[in-house]
Amino acid sequence: MSPAGLVTIEPAGYPVEIELVYAGSNNFICLPIYAADAPCMLHPDAAACLMRAAVAARRAGLTLKIFDAYRPPAAQEVLWRICPNPAYVADPRHGSNHSRGVAVDVTLLDIDGEALDMGTGFDDMREQSHHDRPDLPVAVQRNRHLLLGIMLQAGFVSLPTEWWHYELPGAASYPLLDEEGVLLAE
């Protein structure tokens, strides 16, 4: 456990794949905002839900892939400066549920390790990324509902504007955390 009480999520202990997109440049700002070796961390309550979701996905022949989990407040400020749109990025003055360690961004991989088609990429900040879009192909809607069902049964709730974002109910009641060494120096 980290000094802030966060649990480190690793494939050795959780049946998941991890690609922290903000540790590299394959994200919507095209720049890394975390150290390349930043750990994937969650609050213990969220980590327990993640384990339930990961096990449920495996029972269905799938694997959860994590794009983001705990996000230091300084990283949230970088994202907000670039995209000050509260529909997709939390205003750091109010705090992100990622900065509480209780939110996780995920997708599903098939048995061959290929991402299921969710209709848009991760962090695609358009209406096409909203849950329950009737204008998307049936296969995309099925994949989104499959992910939604796995995450809801595990104890998470969804964010309506992002098919990939899940958090604990009552997330804002958890304290904001700051973890040293996760954010790159600006």
Give an overview of the whole structure:
By secondary structure, the chain is of the alpha+beta class. The chain has a single domain (7-173), classed as Muramoyl-pentapeptide Carboxypeptidase, domain 2, CATH 3.30.1380. It has three helices and seven strands, in the order E-E-E-H-E-H-E-H-E-E. The protein has helices at residues 44-59, 73-82, 138-153, and strands at 7-8, 16-18, 41-42, 63-68, 103-109, 157-159, 162-167. The strands form two sheets. The chain has a five-stranded mixed β-sheet, with helices on one face. A two-stranded antiparallel ribbon has the order 1-3. Strand 6 and strand 7 (162-167) form a beta hairpin. The two termini are 26 Å apart. The relative contact order is 0.20. Mean pLDDT is 88; it is low at 181-186.
